[in-house]
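Now for one specimen:
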Amino acid sequence: MKIIKIETAEVKIPLVTPFKTALRTVENVHDIVVRVITDDGQEGFGEAPPTAVITGDTLGSIRCAIEDFIAPNLIGMEIENLDGIMNKLHGCILKNTSAKAAVDMAIYDLFAKSCGRPLYQVLGGSKKEVETDLTISVNEIDEMVADSLKAVAQGFDILKIKVGKESLKDIERIKAIRQAVGPDVKLRIDANQGWKAKDAVRIIRTLEDMGIDMDLVEQPVSAHDFEGMKFVTSQVSTPILADESVFSPQDAIHLIQERAADLINIKLMKTGGIYEALKICSIAESYGVECMIGCMLESKIAVSAAAHLAAAKGVITRADLDGPSLCKIDPYTGGPLYQGNKIIMTDSAGLGVSAVPGFEKL
């Protein structure tokens, strides 16, 4: 199977409700989709969201990186030469991790298809089901409580609560949601870099003193405030999850060795795809550190790639893969089944996605 063409297109999918964090407000998934075509007519699909406030990538930069740098370097290569492809992919342009991730997952899609098996099996896994949380956007307290109760009624028993805009009000937000949903629903708190280190310790300790159990607190301080992350982790009992602080395997080693967080959030858009994410899994496993698999504001293609990785690796013990659940429609054909809080893998080869808007049928 030789790569003969790499194409890009755009997909725009409305969200059920606006997605609000401490960093941004978004009303649509508006992503770049990728199709890699081989000489025997096989297609592999990938996707990349423009998340400028986190990765620095925009719609234009993603498309430019793929069309002008990545594609010319990969066309003509054999899909079975996976290591060679990935070395070319990561060596042809610096950073641009979202563009790399989109092409990476399309290559893995094709590689698994060449084996005639679902990707999660090719990666060594046997778990056919992944449980995801559901994100509750930061809003006024009454609206967040209502959204939380709605999510629980839909079968979600793990909620990811977005905070980080107003430290004192964040305490009230979390307290009100815990009182509304009861003690059996897991709460994951995501500050999206919105707190200062001392404020984060004060907020988390206050919630702990109130008896409010939290599964974890994600990225309480700025991605570059490494000492702040380390300080928060050392001062509270609740597990601290590093997200924006960890892009690369080197970041993971540094963070783990310095004990600057208890858990690592792997996102394909940060790592540049599955190839580098697998390295972080191996690093974390060797140190006895658990990982969560997360997503940006992605639709079914990219989230499915992350779900396959989650189903393959035991070190990934948590999943934040709710992107398709936040979308009003599913414009794709095939892929894993998204049923409430469960992502169910199918027996289809590769990612399982067979048709993507913007690309004509071969």
